[in-house]
Amino acid sequence: MFFEEFVEGSEQVTRGRTVTETDVVMFAGLTGAVNPLFLDEEHAKTTSFGKRIAPGLLTLSIITGLTYQLPTGPFGNGFVALLGMTFKTPKPVFIGDTLHATVVVKEKLAPKEGRGRVILVSTGKNQKGETVMEAEGTFLVRVKGGDA
Question: Which residues lie below 8 Å from residue 48, measured CB to CB, with a gap of 6+?
């Protein structure tokens, strides 16, 4: 999407995606996040969660990936860069949870030199409707006919 195509207050809902054992193991191996809370079921049973959880950054990555797949293609031709992101994880994500996100265009900041900034808020929920991720990202996007 180009800057002009984002509408403040507009909302889209992503499709769902189930978090798998493979996701957690591959993410831990790729990033070095080899916390026993993610990988050791017996250890995880002794924690307040009672079983293994998915890393918060994996959840953020999945929610961001689902946003990339929205039919409007928000990160297609107009996308230049992710400028920053903040997130909160109010509830844990477990292996087998199915996640989806509601994505809202929070704000558009005036373009300069053919590019503008768009702030998107993504609220990730599990299959029970519980909020498991709240993320806000600032994206640099092109104005139609503008340079990258």
Answer: none
* Rounded-to-integer distance, Cα 20 and Cα 32, Å: 18
Task: Answer yes or no: is 30 within a domain.
Answer: yes
- What b/e readout covers 16-25, taking b as 16+ CB neighbours within 10 angstroms? ebebeeebbe
Give whole-number Cα distances, 49 to 34, 52, 53, 133, in Å: 17, 7, 8, 17
pLDDT surpassing 80 at residue 146 = no
Could you tell me if residue 147 is inside a domain? no
pTM (predicted TM-score): 0.91
Confidence at residue 75, expressed as pLDDT on a 0 to 100 scale? 85
Q: How many CA atoms lie within 13 A of 59 on its CB side?
A: 30
Task: Extract the tokens encoding 62.
Answer: 């999945």
CATH of the domain at 99: 3.10.129.10
> For residues 49 and 25, what is the distance between their CA atoms, to the nearest angstrom?
18
